[in-house]
Design goal:
This protein is of the alpha/beta class and 600 residues long. Helices cover 58% and strands 13% of the residues. Strands 8-14-13-9-12-10-11 form a 7-stranded mixed beta sheet, sandwiched between helices. Strands 1, 2, 3, 4 and 5 form a 5-stranded antiparallel beta sheet that branches. A two-stranded antiparallel ribbon has the order 6-7. Strand 6 and strand 7 form a beta hairpin. It is elongated and about 155 Å long.
Length: 600
């Protein structure tokens, strides 16, 4: 009755109501609006056969009125029935309806209507939300969307229309959402399992990465080849996901074993994974020869999925693991960890944002434009000191301690010398006093980002030479500034005190200044020259006793250089003996043992 052909599209027009009668009434209103509508080929409806109360009352009124005008029709009807050969009892029910309208009203009621028992359940549905009356409308398939929009516009707001394709699309969306949800939950469970197994967020992410990338590749390849998931191969896809989980765990364990022992064992683990994949291919991949489409779809997903999973398991974990543990083909002293990456990223971001949003705008917008009218030099250096103080004390994972047993106030200018361990040395020194000027190297001086800040703070590059820098430094000393020089000239690459150059001591004698030694311990372990990522640790800055100008004036530059280096070697060795306790070494030992397994 409402079959859908190749050229016909079947639409479903539905009227809703909280009660049966309300739904029937709204359905009658909808049908009256659609009757005679251009473009509708055929419409099958229950409207009129099971009337609403209002329509039933109107019908009964017309029925009663009709028989009141034709009371003599009963005798004529009986006479005609007898002449036609019918029994006198054949039309008793009809005569009763003619005589008693209440009987007709009962037949028209939705509860006792015989049509309701025959086909009513095809058209009327009930549920917790109320009743729905469904009508079947056939339209030209080519004009399907156009007619659906036209019908939707014509019918009342409490009615709606849809097609079979809408149901399919909705079902597909529900299945897709459910599948995505299941995939997300399964992925989360797998990741948690990996985390519990390896007890390392880095190894968990490394093992999970091939699974995530494989899934993207599988979906992409299937889309290119026009393949689709169905209820059969979806189950296999989850199995492949589980196999990939096992493969990546196995490869990761091989990498950890090789990293711990130094023996080449990874190939053995790869061969085991390859053998397992071959068995999987033989077991399910041969179904590609099957004629049954469901069996063939299983084989297609198995082949694509297993090839992708094995390739990613072979390729990605070794790349990531070697980046974590090696640099330029050599084993890192301390492997990369997620916490180190986060700490370093936070520190760099904080430093860049602090420079960009605080120092650079202040320099461009206030200090430089108002320099003629306002001497903000002291405030500018105080701002540099505050920023340095905050940064050095808030390096993530690093405890900073300052020791000043000599009660140095930095009020009297001096040439401040310090061992050079890290990029953070400058922050550690500048936070001591606003009356500090640093001689920098060329790359800092020429830096396009914070070079302006360096220039404004009256820092000078060492490469300018003694003769060019001396008049400027002499003027700064007269204004109460101390000059910071690193006698080693560059950061240490071993953590030990390096060779001293005599430039700092020559400068101190020429300016008539005391030498003020500072000694830093721990920054080499926190951020050494050959690494770009922070490590957890403790840093101590000790302020030494001044060496007066009267002492160094009577000595040659070479003797002063030798004396001060000897002091640093002895003092730094003393600091190491006091500070490098088991608690101090604990984070570095943890780094060394990261990604290693117990070997019997």
């Amino acid at each position: 009755m409402w079959a859908q052909g190749d050229s016909v599209l079947l639409l479903y027009a539905v009227a809703e109501g909280r009660s049966r009668n309300e739904a029937l009434y709204r359905n009658e209103t909808m049908i009256s609006r659609l009757s005679g509508m251009n473009g509708i080929r055929k419409m099958t409806s229950i409207a009129g056969l099971i009337p609403s109360d209002s329509l039933r009352m109107k019908s009964m009124a017309r029925w009663t009125h009709f028989w009141s005008l034709h009371q003599d029709l009963e005798k004529t009807f009986e006479k005609s029935a007898m002449e036609a050969g019918f029994s006198t009892e054949a039309f008793v029910p009809f005569r009763n309806l003619m005589k008693d309208p209440s009987e007709a009203e009962k037949m028209l009621s939705s509860a006792q209507n015989p049509v309701n028992a025959l086909i009513g359940h095809y058209f009327i549905m009930s549920g917790d939300s109320g009743y729905k009356v469904v009508n079947f409308i056939q339209v030209d398939k080519k004009r399907g969307e156009e007619m659906k929009k036209a019908i939707s516009t014509a019918i009342p707001s409490d009615c709606f229309v849809f097609s079979q394709s809408d149901v399919s699309d909705h079902l597909a969306k529900i299945l897709s959402d459910s599948f995505n949800y299941i995939g997300f939950v399964c992925g989360l469970v797998v990741f948690v399992f990996l985390w519990l197994s390896f007890r390392s967020i880095e190894l968990s992410l490394m093992s999970f990465l091939p699974l995530a990338v494989s899934w993207i590749w599988i979906l992409g390849i299937m889309d290119i080849l026009g393949m689709q998931f169905n209820i059969v191969n979806v189950i296999l896809a989850t199995f492949i996901f589980g196999q990939g989980d096992d493969y990546t765990i196995f490869i990761t364990e091989g990498l950890m074993s090789e990293y711990t022992t130094g023996k080449k064992r990874l190939e053995t683990y790869k061969n085991s994974v390859g053998l397992s994949a071959v068995i999987m291919f033989i077991g399910i991949g041969t179904l590609i020869l099957s004629k049954h489409p469901a069996m063939r779809s299983l084989a297609e997903v198995a082949i694509i999925g297993m090839l992708t999973v094995v390739a990613m398991a072979y390729y990605l974990p070794p790349i990531v693991f070697r980046w974590l543990t090696e640099k330029n083909g050599r084993r890192r002293e301390f492997p990369v960890t997620l916490s180190r990456l986060v700490y370093s990223g936070f520190s760099i971001t904080f430093f860049i944002c602090g420079m960009f949003f605080l120092l650079v705008p202040y320099t461009y917008l206030l200090y430089k434009p108002l320099q003629r009218f306002w001497n903000g030099e002291h405030f500018y250096h105080r701002l540099l000191q505050c920023i340095s103080y905050f940064i050095i004390r808030h390096v993530p994972g690093v405890k900073f301690r300052e020791v000043n047993d000599v009660k140095e106030t930095f009020g009297k200018p001096a040439v401040i010398i310090c061992n050079h361990q890290s990029h953070l040395d400058l922050m550690a020194i500048m936070q001591l006093s606003p009356k500090i000027i640093v001689l920098t190297n060329d790359w800092v001086w020429n830096n396009p980002y914070y070079g302006l800040v360096i220039h404004t703070a009256d820092f000078y590059p060492v490469s300018n030479g003694y003769d060019q820098n001396f008049p400027h430094l002499q003027y700064l000393v007269q204004r109460g500034y101390s000059i910071v020089v690193f006698p080693e000239g560059t950061r240490t690459s071993t953590g030990e005190i390096g060779r001293f150059h005599k430039g700092a001591f020559t400068l101190a004698k020429a300016l008539g200044l005391d030498l003020l030694p500072l000694c830093i311990h721990g920054l080499y372990d926190v951020l050494p020259k050959h690494d770009f990522m922070l490590r957890r640790g403790s840093v101590t800055l000790e302020v030494g006793r001044r060496v007066s100008f009267d002492v160094i004036e009577r000595m040659s530059d070479r003797d002063v250089t030798h004396m001060m280096r000897l002091w640093y070697v002895e003092h730094y060795a003393s600091m190491r003996q006091r500070l490098e306790t088991p608690e101090y070494r604990e984070p570095y030992e943890a780094y060394r043992n990261k990604y290693k397994v117990d070997v019997e």
